[in-house]
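60S ribosomal protein L24 (Cryptosporidium parvum), 202 aa
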Amino acid sequence: KSTENMRIEKCWYCSSNIYPGHGVTFVRNDAKIFRFCRSKCHRHFKMKHNPRKSKWTKAYRKTRGKEMIMDTTFEFEKKRNCPIRYDRELYIKTIKAMKLVEKIKESRKERFYKTRLMKQQQTQRTLVDKETERNATLLKGPEIPLAQTTTMSDISRQKALKKSEKKMNKIVEKRKSFIDKFSGNTDVSMMDMEDDQEEIVL
């Protein structure tokens, strides 16, 4: 079944939708009807809690300015207890108008939420800017004069040159030692060969 043919009630406590076959109804002694979407809302009602003080209700959000309160689209949702004679054309027009009103209401809600979030972002940015201005000394490094910077750069260059010279000297020494070892081994091998030849001649 489509939801167009159903009567969707609103919860008395959290003002959420109550579909047919769901929720709890409570009738007081003075014949006033209270409808609740679930047992949670019914429990809060029995404990006489104020819905404006619980954060998960629509009443709380409206009082804190998180949702729209004043808008012309809300007037169409009001119940009118005046009897109207049945007219098919009028009913068709009202159903079409209800669909248009819902679309307009959703677009206005989105616009309202966007403006609210933009204000929050602006406040957050201002707070961040204030903190940066207050603690600007922590963000900046220690101030060094130009003369010291030039001397520091020269010293760093000299250190780098010394390190490179030491590395080159080590490499040269290693190569020399390797060459000396290789040349010494060749001399010894040649002497051994000459001794062997003398023994053979004898």
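The longest helix spans residues 146-201. The chain is about 60% helix and 5% strand. ok done for today
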